[in-house]
Amino acid sequence: MTATLWAVSDLHVTFPENQAIVDGLSPRHHGDWLIVAGDVAERIPDVVRTLRGLVARFDTVIWVPGNHELFNRRTDRFNGRSRYRVLVGQLRAIGVITPEDPFPVFGGVTVCPLFALYDYSFRPPGVSARQAVDRAVVKLDDEIAIAPYVDVVQWSAERVEYSERRLAAVTGPKILVNHWPLVVEPTRRLRAPDIALWCGTTATRDWAVKYNALLAIHGHLHIPAETRVDGISHIDVSLGYPFEQHPPHLRRPWPFPALELP
Length: 262
Fold this sequence. Notes:
Layout: E1 3-8, H1 16-23, E2 33-36, H2 44-55, E3 60-63, H3 81-93, E4 105-106, E5 109-113, H4 129-135, H5 142-145, H6 152-168, E6 174-177, H7 207-210, E7 213-218, E8 226-229, E9 232-236, E10 256-261
Parallel strand pairs: 1-2, 2-3, 5-6, 6-7, 7-9
Antiparallel strand pairs: 1-10, 4-5, 8-9
């Protein structure tokens, strides 16, 4: 069977230009799968609508949350952890595989959708997380749209522990999928280094090696590039915002073919 496991992230469909690109996403072969590595949109109905359309076209759709799906407003009915639970429930109902579901297998490779957050540990040595955030010249909106509604550091630690238990129970080759990069190296391309604070956790540093990953898929940085760490590729599959421009050497095929079956 000829089939491809495609990967995308950071669709940000609230931009009409991005919505048009997503509307054009379609499989090339019967049986193609699609990974959506977070940041579809901020509003739950927009996330569900977008993924419902992709489910109608691809054989299997796998989703992990990004920070934009977790953005909260005081007027929202569900905030913090309950917001994530609602997202999972609504996406499961339309057939999307989430980080709370059994890991699917594509061509003998286990695809592992993960939800490991950030904990401000991608920071300079010698400063606390609070000091690093306070000193940051550039801060992400997470500080006003996520942090007031949930203890992000505690939630990240819980998600790391939960994910490690699940990964340890699976043998054989894997593709790891997380919105935030699992290692710090990709963040070194950021033009504003402070942003790394909201880009992952050092607790996931050894996952790709420890859990026999063929590669790791991430988004979040909007820098569509490949970073090799310990011999394993960490690939940013972001679409990003329509106004962003990247040097040609950073551009990756998009959608990215994470795995192809002959």
